[in-house]
Amino acid sequence: MLAGTVGGATRAAGQTVFNRTWPTAGPVAAAAAVCAFTAVVALRDPFKHQVTPPCPFHALTGLWCPFCGATRAAWAATHGDLRLMLHANALFPIIVGLVGWSWFAWFGKATGRWSIPVPKGRAFAWAVAVVLVAFTVFRNLPGFGALGPPS
Q1: Domain span at 49
Q2: Quick check: is 69 in a domain?
Q3: What's the 3-state SS for the chain?
Q4: Which residues, 6 or more positions from 146, have their beta carbon under 8 angstroms from its beta carbon?
Q5: Least enclosed by CB within 10 Å: which of 1, 114, 127, 129?
Q6: Which of the four pLDDT bands, split at 50, 70 and 90, describes residue 9?
Q7: Is it the case that residue 12 has pLDDT exceeding 80?
Q8: Total domain count, the chain
Q9: Assigned domain for 3 exists
Q10: Is residue 6 one of the residues assigned to a domain?
Q11: Model pLDDT for residues 33-91, shown as the tens digit of each residue
């Protein structure tokens, strides 16, 4: 077996700190940042206080983008209010699932312990774009106010 391989597979390159390679530095740092942001959102109610900068798309057009309400959805999820989470942003659980799946694939590749297939390619990119555009259109149509984030 070659040096730098695990079970016959080549180990992914990582960050070098103090003459030591840390292949999981990226995934761990990303997870720590997400956990820190989630803690801030959980502790500071975005319905009462400004937690993040306002959405530039909403500020310019007055329309809700596909991510508007995600901070409120994260707050509702951390407080166990799934109904409010879905009302704040109905795509939030799907986005969190895709990001989580991608993170586990990244961490598995960095450690060399497992390989999870990640959807990619032109067809997947088009599917994501179509879903985001359709959600944006529907949440801004009259009669679909339930898809818009609560005020």
Answers
A1: 15-147
A2: yes
A3: CCCCEECCEECCCCEEECCEEECCHHHHHHHHHHHHHHHHHHHCCCCCCCCCCCCHHHHHHCCCCCCCCHHHHHHHHHCCCHHHHHHHCCCHHHHHHHHHHHHHHHHHHHHCCCCCCCCCCHHHHHHHHHHHHHHHHHHHCCCCHHHCCCC
A4: 87
A5: 1
A6: very low
A7: no
A8: 1
A9: no
A10: no
A11: 999 999 999 999 999 999 999 999 999 999 999 999 999 999 999 999 999 999 999 99
What does the alpha-carbon distance between residue 12 and residue 39 come to, in Å, rounded to a whole number? Answer: 31
26 in Cβ contact with 17 (< 8 Å): no
Q: Residue 151 corresponds to which tokens in the numbers above?
A: 């005020």
Q: Environment class of residue 2 by beta-carbon count within 10 Å: exposed (0-12), middle (13-18) or buried (19+)?
A: exposed
Give me 31's structure tokens.
Answer: 């997870």
pLDDT digits (tens, 9 = 90+) for 88-113: 999 999 999 999 999 999 999 999 88
